Amino acid sequence: MDITLNFTPYTFRLKNILYLITLVAFFSSCGTRKYTVKSDTKASKAADAMANLKSKQLYRFITDWTGVRYRFGGLDKSGIDCSGFAFLLEKEIYGVTLPRISRDQANAIRRKDVDNLKEGDLVFFSFGGSDVDHVGIYLNNGFFVHASTTRGVIVDDLTLPAYQKVLVKSGSVN
């Protein structure tokens, strides 16, 4: 019995093509897995707070400054501190001129309970004692934007215990 394998260039190419198609299908199926972000994560809640802003101008301002690093005394995109950020935001978005220092900004507001805060209201903290030494701008749903000393300009959760322990005043500009 004589067995001869008769491979023509055409059948050899066809087998190679089918083999490649099988490999491509196999490896591409591994990449189609859908990854979802849990809707109750801090990041998704911060994104929701941004999406729910009433002022589109405020939204643009925040996104334009997000990630700018913290620099004590800074007042531009090369670095900004918390009171400088509040100063610029209130002036550009609401036409209000605040004092430049957070302690003085706290003296310029009308006190409001945290539960009654509105978009653009200010929240003040004391990390180093009894004096106000940090400020942020309230957004909604318990979130605020500020210039963090470690993370730069960021939207953060006011309900975190770390902030609740040091929150000393909140309110709107007189």
Quick gist of this model?
One of its GO terms (molecular function) is cysteine-type peptidase activity. It is built from six helices and eight strands.
Count of DSSP H/I helices: 6
Mean pLDDT: 86
How many extended strands? Answer: 8
**CATH classification, class level:** Alpha Beta
Q: If you had to describe this structure to a student in words, what would you say it looks like?
A:
The structure is a single chain. This protein has 174 residues and is α+β, with helices and mostly antiparallel strands. The protein has one domain (42-173): endopeptidase domain like (from Nostoc punctiforme) (endopeptidase fold (from Nostoc punctiforme)), CATH 3.90.1720. The chain contains 6 helices and 8 strands, in the order αααββααβββββαβ. It has helices at 9-30, 42-51, 56-65, 82-94, 102-107, 161-164; strands spanning 75-76, 79-80, 109-111, 122-125, 134-140, 143-148, 152-157, 167-173. A 6-stranded antiparallel β-sheet has the order 3-8-4-5-6-7. It has a two-stranded antiparallel sheet with strand order 1-2. Strand 5 (134-140) and strand 6 form a beta hairpin. GO terms for molecular function: cysteine-type peptidase activity. Belongs to the peptidase C40 family. Keywords: Hydrolase, Membrane, Protease, Signal, Thiol protease, Transmembrane, Transmembrane helix.
